[in-house]
Amino acid sequence: MKFALASYGTRGDIEPSIAIGRELLRRGHEVRMAVSPDLVDFVESAGLAAVAYGPDTREWVDRYRDFFKSILRNIWRPHALIELLAPTAETWVGMSTVLMSLADGADLLYTGLNFEQPAANAAEYYGIPLATLHYYPMRPNGQMVPVLPPALGRSAMRVFDWLFWRLHKKLDDAQRRELGLPKATGPSPQRITERGSLEIQAYDEACFPGLSAEWAKSNGRRPFVGTLTIEFTTDGDDEVASWIAAGKPPIYFGFGSVPFESFAEMVEMIGAACAELGERALVRAGGSDLRDVPNFDHVKVVDAVSYAAAFPACRAVVHHGGSGTTAAGLRAGIPTLILWTMGDQPIWGAQIKRLKVGTARRFSAATRETLVSDLREILAPDYVARAREISLRMTEPAVSVTAAADLLEDTVRRKASC
Fold first, then answer.
1. Quick check: helix, strand or coil at residue 36?
2. Which residues are registered as beta bridge partners of 232?
3. Phi and psi at residue 393, in whole multiples of 5°?
4. Strand order in the sheet with 2-6
């Protein structure tokens, strides 16, 4: 079988696709990937062939962050917000061109959450199955926004889909016209669902109680497989394990692709808060500038860390709220504090609070005082007990990737038998 995998975004967006791609390759299939230019080397280091797809993610992350920073300031200037989010015509055309080349001759086109619209058009043009990967429940449902009544939550998501479609409509129409496809009359999520596409839910059902029952009528087209990850090891794992074993289990701090105005100030805040609580801290720098970083006996700063190896030995995790990091903390059975900045992160923050295994607040609102208060809250015995309980309902990474690959293979087989 020939699989075309298109996945745009930061490392957290790409890693689930790499996990699937490697499993499909292991099974003897041909796998071709398209990812953002700055992550081509990362994909190739994992043993997969990749081509560049769309702009550098650092440009995307900056624009997305600007959107969330300005959403309140520009609430009465919707055009300003649209300009921040909308891709340029040049970007859309370039990505469409890569997709068409990638999907040519493929048995299935798979796409991540970002830019699933042009991927859906390419799959329709070639008459091949489309599979989408969701890191949280993006299709209308009554569970994702627990503060709203279910019916209102579903309606709000449908409105969001429609507004997002209108935002990209000219670009979508131009691509479909170029491909000789009929003009679309509704949002791409609606079209994808109506076409009977596979919509893999790459998170655990336990994270959104009630969602499985609500989607029961999807006839298996929205299967829950659990979070997909590779569980990379790092060169510093032995050193980290030795440091952890030498004292009280630490609290992990790491913020993914979030850039710090001053990483040194962040470490100073973490050090002061943990000192007040009598805790140790393991801090992931993630390529941050380590100049002027203060040195504390109870704080260890590392460039990278294996979540699978380190988290089970920690007391709690504090992070940005990415879906992969959130799942790693839940699998480890330890409480979570999410300090979110953008995207799906506040969604995971809300679910962590709903499940009562942690708490959350906006990253920019965090201070030494709030950090002390939040850590005291999540380290309480009831949070620890609930975190351990939900860990028993989380899917193991190997099981998740096997299930996802099986689903893709089965989709191709069903198409071939028609």
1. coil
2. none
3. -105, 5
4. 50-52, 30-35, 2-6, 108-111, 130-134, 198-201
Cα–Cα dist 368/274, whole Å:
9
Residue 163's contacts (CB-CB under 8 Å, 6 or more residues apart) are none
Sign, Cα dihedral of 290, 316, 268, 275:
negative
Q: Is 293 left (phi over 0), alpha (psi -120 to 50) or beta?
A: beta
Place of tokens 């790092």: 234
Q: Give the residue among 203, 232, 230, 225 at the shortest CA–CA distance from 310.
A: 232
- Would you say how long the chain is, in residues? 418
pLDDT in tens, 221-268: 999 999 999 888 888 899 999 999 999 999 999 987 666 678 888 899
The pTM of the full predicted model, rounded to 2 decimals, is: 0.90
Q: How far apart are CA 233 and CA 138, in angstroms?
A: 31
Fold of 237-391: Rossmann fold (3.40.50)
pLDDT digit string, tens, across residues 393-405: 999 999 999 999 9
Nearest Cα to Cα of residue 54 among 13, 23, 22, 21:
13
The pair of structure tokens assigned to 115 is: 């830019």
Domains 2-227+396-417 and 237-391 share a fold: yes
| Mean per-residue pLDDT of the chain | 89
Q: Strands 336-340 and 2-6, how do they pair?
A: unpaired
Q: What is the DSSP letter of 221?
A: S
The pLDDT value recorded for residue 72 is: 46
Q: Which CATH architecture has domain 2-227+396-417?
A: 3-Layer(aba) Sandwich (3.40)
Could you tell me the two tokens for 94? 């370039």
| pLDDT one-digit tens code per residue, 49-59 | 999 998 887 77
- Roughly what angle, to the nearest 10 degrees, separates helices 89-103 and 150-179? 80
Return contacts of 102-107, CB within 8 angstroms, 24+ apart. 102/4, 102/6, 102/32, 102/34, 102/51, 103/4, 103/128, 105/2, 106/2, 106/3, 106/4, 106/32, 107/1, 107/2, 107/3, 107/412, 107/415, 107/416
Per-position DSSP letters for 43-87, written without gaps between them: HHHTT--EEE-SS-HHHHHHHHHHHHHHTTTTTT-HHHHHHHHPP
- Strand, helix or coil at 110? strand
- Boundaries of every domain in the chain: 2-227+396-417, 237-391
From the list 146, 90, 129, the residue with the least C-alpha distance to 4 is 129
Q: Tell me the pLDDT tens digit for each residue of 366-380.
A: 999 999 999 999 999
| Closest of 31, 3, 204 to residue 107, by C-alpha | 3
Starting at the earlier edge strand, list the strands of the sheet with 336-340: 299-302, 281-284, 251-254, 316-319, 336-340, 358-362
